[in-house]
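PROTEIN DESIGN WORKSHEET
SECTION A - STRUCTURE
LENGTH: 97
TOKENS:
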């Protein structure tokens, strides 16, 4: 599925007519779950569909966490120890207010 930002406005733009009940349902599913699933999906289909999404998103989250840490290190690597202490102390003071 290419359009993960599927919403009511997109439905209207694509169809050029009033959205149908199916369009509305798909827009709601896309908003709640990131995409929609097939009409008439069985409980087994939905469990499988959810398991696949969860596995993919879990991997993406892990990758984003690694990317975040790597770039946080880059942000501070050129800072002096004194600058880092000042930032840390300011954060501690703000957290204790």
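SECTION B - SEQUENCE
RESIDUE ASSIGNMENT:
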């Amino acid at each position: 599925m290419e359009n993960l930002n599927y919403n009511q406005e997109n439905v209207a733009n694509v169809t050029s007519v009033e959205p149908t009940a199916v369009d509305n349902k798909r827009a709601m599913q896309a908003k709640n779950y990131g995409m929609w699933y097939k009409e008439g999906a069985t409980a087994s289909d939905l469990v499988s569909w959810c398991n696949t999404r969860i596995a993919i998103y879990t991997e993406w989250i892990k990758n984003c966490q690694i990317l975040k840490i790597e770039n946080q290190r880059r942000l501070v690597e050129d800072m002096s120890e004194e600058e880092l202490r000042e930032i840390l102390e300011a954060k501690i003071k703000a957290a204790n207010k």
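SECTION C - NOTES
Residues 30 and 36 are 5 Å apart (CA to CA).
The chain has four helices and no strands.
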